[in-house]
Amino acid sequence: RYYDEVVPIPGPEGIKWAKALAQQEGIFTGISGGATFAVARQIAGKAPAGSVILCMLPDTGERYMSTPLFDGIEAE
User: 3-class SS at 48?
Assistant: First the structure.
């Protein structure tokens, strides 16, 4: 077995967290990266104090630049 559980994340939530990571942390990831981060937040909320949570973001936001994912985010 290669995984512990499957956690479904709706597309809009993945988009929300991808935007938040770009705006607040400067981490430019795509929708699946945003969904991965959403799951990491859920797991961290249930983990014992002092736990270390590793979250690997599986894609980059570059291919989403011309999509609605990053509408409203201005380049500096």
Answer: coil
